[in-house]
Amino acid sequence: MQKPVEREWELTIDPDTVRLFILKAKAISAAVNDDYNDGSEHEIELDDQNHDGHHHDGLAEEESEDLTSEELRELIDDLNVDETAELVALVWVGRGDYDPAEFQEAVADARQRSNKRTATYLLGMPTLADWLEEGLEAIGA
Known about the structure:
Blueprint: H1 15-30, E1 41-45, E2 51-55, H2 60-77, H3 81-94, H4 103-113, H5 118-123, H6 128-139
Antiparallel strand pairs: 1-2
Helix pairs in contact: 1-2, 1-6, 3-4, 3-6
């Protein structure tokens, strides 16, 4: 565990907002994969000659994964430029690309690289929730 950095700045993005993102990212990573088909159709044998088909529309987790993913994408897209840069910087600090003391440098680099695909970039990270948690903890937020 890293010692939180003594900071002379305030986050633009609310740490509670980041914690909400963490919860949604955890829900996405815990959901069942879309290609999960086992159990969607079964044939039930009643006796030697009678069969009955059983079908259901899939697992509720599959539907909620898409919804949660879309919700998180929309929340990220709704952030302003400063909040988006800080969110990306938190991920970079969390995965060890920057030290906590270099957070402002990470924010500046994230701001330079910002584009309209930030949500896609972040949602493509399988350990997004972990890195955000570690980033928040590292900077003492």
